[in-house]
């Protein structure tokens, strides 16, 4: 079954067959429009894949949407979260309050959630501002790009690792660790139905944000991890993909290959940009030269900050591959292409 992306107002809960349902849950103020939350049937109560943004309208859409499908939210057995972002994990705590459900996510993202709870709002703002300054943003832009942080999601009760089976009696729902978009992003393979819940890892039309935070980290390579994860998902074969945004589509392997190709082209273009510069470039300067869905000059400060995070992830991958080097500098991070 395949559906096309429509505005949220045109979305409806759907019975997808085989004991799987989808419920569109709005994301207030986001161009994405909504998150597709899935419910998977089991003899001991349904398990949700993701939960949606923590907002009264979203809660009404989730609980009401489940009700139209004949599912009372109080019967939900558990919520398995593909990753900790607020449009996926935000309502998990409220579902737990309503039903006593457990919440599960990968151990790496669980660690991120605990860190968020320990990190006060003013500390977060200062951290972001300093990170942006080291990337090359001027002080006023660094302050404007910091923005407010959503409330952190509920701390999970259960932690998953790659290959673990979710507690879903009578079904086989296996966690596939697919880091990149977040350190603990997981896809979920419904092995008894040849379906893959892809979260944000593989989407049918757009590609997920792959950033690195702080921008100047040298001990991780999120884009490299993402590209490897795409290969791994491709090895699962021509499964039907049930993504968290846009629409359901067939042959996840083919789409994963397209996304890998897109990022390799982007890496080649970035390397050519750097090779053409006579001086080393800051992350902010690199981001301003790259191609985005809107011209850099028209991007609001927060989106510039996200673009810089994505530029930093691409720079880190080129560095890990030995194609560029960073210059030692305490105050600013600069990169330079190496002779090929």
Short description:
Keywords: Hydrolase. It holds the Pfam family Lactamase_B. With about 350 residues, the chain is an alpha/beta fold.
Overview of the structural elements:
By secondary structure, the chain is of the alpha/beta class. The chain has one domain (8-258): Metallo-beta-lactamase, Chain A (4-Layer Sandwich), CATH 3.60.15. It is built from 10 helices and 14 strands. The chain has helices at 56-68, 86-89, 92-99, 107-118, 121-135, 139-146, 222-234, 252-275, 283-289, 301-320, and strands at 14-15, 20-26, 34-40, 47-49, 78-80, 102-106, 158-160, 173-177, 186-190, 195-199, 240-243, 281-282, 324-327, 334-337. Strands 1-2-3-4-5-6-7 form a 7-stranded mixed sheet. A 4-stranded mixed sheet has the order 8-9-10-11, with no helix packed on it. Strands 12-14-13 form a 3-stranded antiparallel sheet. α5 packs across α6 and α9 (283-289) crosses α10. Its EC number is 3.1.2.6. This is Hydroxyacylglutathione hydrolase. It is an enzyme of class 3 (hydrolase). Residues 34-245 form the Metallo-beta-lactamase domain.
